[in-house]
Design goal:
Blueprint (H helix, E strand, L loop, with lengths): L9 H21 L11 H4 L1 E9 L8 H16 L7 E5 L2 E7 L15 E11 L14 E4 L67 H16 L12 H17 L20 E5 L4 E11 L3 E9 L4 E8 L1 H13 L5 E5 L2 E4 L2 E2 L8 E7 L1 H13 L5 E10 L1 H30 L1 H27 L6 H30 L4 H33 L4 H31 L7 H4 L2 H20 L1
Parallel strand pairs: 5-12, 6-11
Antiparallel strand pairs: 1-3, 1-14, 2-3, 4-7, 4-10, 5-13, 6-7, 8-9, 9-13, 10-11
Length: 599
């Protein structure tokens, strides 16, 4: 049987609280990177935040699926900047790009719609191969949706390097898989040597004083000179000498190209669709020379992954709009046995062979797909060239100096608020005010650890709005103490001693505290769901601090008050500033005893 409220054992509550604090700080110091500091938002750390507002052609709201695909594509571009802590999140129908530090200027141009285009494969070699070869029909296939498609043949890694054939079939939106590194063979078309650091340079300063924009522009221009050289195509396809010269340049370009799945391609999103392209597939196992784009990805009307029981595997069904269907039909009729590459931001996501002329636009892409691979490829084809356009509705750049100044101002405001609460409690409640100060300090101890862990686990960043939420929460927490102490005073006015008033006052205060915090948490939750932008940070921290308030009040403040009430010295009315209340209670008890005697 549980002891009465007045007979609780404060030591057990304190021990439980100590266990919670020890567990939190063990996670802080001994898990993850071990850094005991929370992640700061750009308004505290400095950086760039760009809000992109999605727009559909018909003005309707974009689907969640479309927004998620857009977020993934844009995130790959942001990661290519090469800075840590970059985030891309959805905020309603907006995509919010946050890049901390001084590398964020490029984030303002990352909202360009990802470019998906169809190019013919002119030559292909494994990433480790030395010479070009003509397209091999056995690396995946595309045919009419009702036709019997070749599912590809088994081969070594690289021979199936289109990424969707018999080997891997991977179609996830990963970082670009090519760079401009590697040596230049004799007679190479480019006029300048490649930058030895190009494969690892992600647009930062290189130490020679050039800005990020200048260096990026140089990388793009250098890559275009040899990867999009018009000489890769013969000027006259009927001239054998011109054809041989173009093939020689293609071989040289393929030898020069280095496929590194972890390196940023400077041409990603910057290639010219009217020029040929030298590119890699997504997993970096095959290199291609591709023709100019003959069909834009915006011509795709739908793409879906289905299981084909006849072939015993997953396939991707693809359909085009009327104009795209005509272009696709003409291309497939003229290029049976050739390969068509689906290129997303210079990265080949699939390169199936054309098995037959496909009229009507309904196309089936077959290969040894897993279910997830087929769905990923369908998503890329359906949303690669997004059926959304983005406009930059807000672009904010905050310097680190301004961020630190803002943080300082927020901390000063919080310190002033805490000081006022402390002074009020010490003057009005005396020793009870000391317990309030101690409880708030322990609450801050938990809050700090939780902030560090949330930043590590879910990427939560503390911004100015969050700091404001915590400053406001000081009043919420102090209000719980005030409610408790006032209930104790009410019981003492009724004639009870301080020791007997504590458990009775707690029972009444507990209901009020729970109801008040529940309403505050509900309000914070509704605000978080409905709010946009930085207001979400305020709502999140307000809700978090409300939950932590309950932990501190139940595990620290109430046990401390019980412990003090059991001490003869500490429970003196003079120390508590409750002498007047005690005298009222004493007079009421005396009046009650007198009434009993007279009766």
């Amino acid at each position: 049987m549980a002891p009465p409220a007045g007979q609780i054992r404060p030591g057990r509550y304190f021990a439980f609280f100590v266990v919670i604090v020890a567990a939190l700080y063990s996670l802080v110091f001994f898990t993850g990177d071990g850094s005991p500091t929370p992640k700061l938002g750009i308004d505290l750390k400095g950086g760039t935040r760009v809000t992109l507002t999605a727009r559909t052609p018909d003005g309707s709201d974009p689907s969640r699926e479309q927004l998620q695909q857009a977020r993934q594509i844009i995130e790959n571009r942001v990661n290519g900047i090469g800075v840590s802590g970059a985030e891309v999140v959805l905020d309603g129908s907006n995509v919010v790009i946050t890049v901390p530090g001084n590398e964020g200027e490029q984030a303002k141009t990352l909202g360009q719609t990802a470019k998906l285009g169809f190019r013919q494969v002119l030559a292909a070699v494994p990433a480790g191969g030395a010479g070009a070869q003509q397209p091999d029909p056995g690396t995946g296939s595309a045919d009419g949706s009702d036709g019997e498609g070749d599912t590809g043949t088994e081969g070594t890694e690289g021979e199936n390097g289109d990424g969707q054939g018999a080997d891997s079939g991977s179609a996830d939106s990963s970082e670009s898989g090519e760079s401009g590194g590697g040596g230049t063979p004799p007679g190479s078309a480019p006029a300048q040597q490649p930058d030895d650091d190009q494969g690892d340079d992600n647009g930062g300063q290189n130490g020679d004083g050039r800005t990020v924009q200048e260096e990026t522009a140089e990388q793009i221009q250098e890559a275009k000179q040899w990867r999009q050289d018009v000489a890769l195509l013969p000027a006259d396809p009927t001239d054998q000498a011109a054809v041989q010269e173009a093939q020689q340049l293609q071989q040289q370009a393929l030898m020069r190209l280095t496929c590194d799945p972890n390196a940023l391609d400077p041409l990603a999103g910057n290639d010219d669709p009217n020029l040929p392209l030298v590119a890699c597939n997504q997993d970096g196992t095959e290199k291609y020379v591709l023709s100019p784009v003959f069909l834009e990805g915006t011509s795709i009307s739908d793409a879906s992954a289905v299981y084909d029981p006849q072939q015993g595997g997953w396939v991707v069904n693809l359909s085009f709009n009327s104009q795209g269907a005509d272009t696709w039909a003409d291309f497939t009729a003229q290029n049976i046995g050739e390969r068509a590459a689906f290129v997303l931001d210079t990265e080949v996501v699939s390169a199936p062979s054309i098995n037959e002329a496909i009229a009507g636009g309904d196309t089936r892409i077959s290969g040894q797909f897993t279910q997830s691979e087929a769905h990923n490829l369908a998503d890329v084809l359906k949303y690669g060239s997004l059926p959304l356009s983005f406009e930059s509705s807000d672009a904010t750049t905050v310097s680190a100096t301004l961020g630190l100044a803002t943080l300082k101002a927020g901390l000063i405001a919080g310190a002033i608020g805490l000081a006022l609460v402390f002074v009020y409690c010490l003057v009005y409640y005396r020793i009870l005010g000391v317990l309030t100060v101690l409880s708030l300090a322990l609450s801050a101890l938990i809050v700090y650890a939780v902030l560090v862990l949330l930043g590590r686990w879910i990427g939560y960043t503390l911004d100015i709005a969050g700091v404001v939420g915590f400053v406001v929460s000081v009043g919420v927490t102090a209000d719980s103490f005030v409610v408790y102490f006032e209930r104790i005073k009410d019981e003492m006015r009724e004639g009870r001693t301080f020791r007997s008033a504590v458990p009775r006052g707690w029972v009444k205060a507990r209901r009020t505290i729970l109801a008040s915090d529940a309403i505050m948490f509900l309000a914070a939750g509704v605000l978080y769901v409905l709010a946009v932008g930085e207001v979400k940070g305020f709502a999140f921290t307000l809700g978090l601090s409300t939950v932590l308030d309950l932990i501190v009040v139940f595990l620290v403040t109430h046990p401390l008050v019980v412990l003090v009430s059991r001490s003869k010295k500490l429970s003196s009315p003079k120390l508590f500033g409750l002498g007047a209340v005690q005298r009222i209670g004493d007079s009421r008890r005396a009046a009650a005893r007198m009434a009993v005697k007279e009766a």
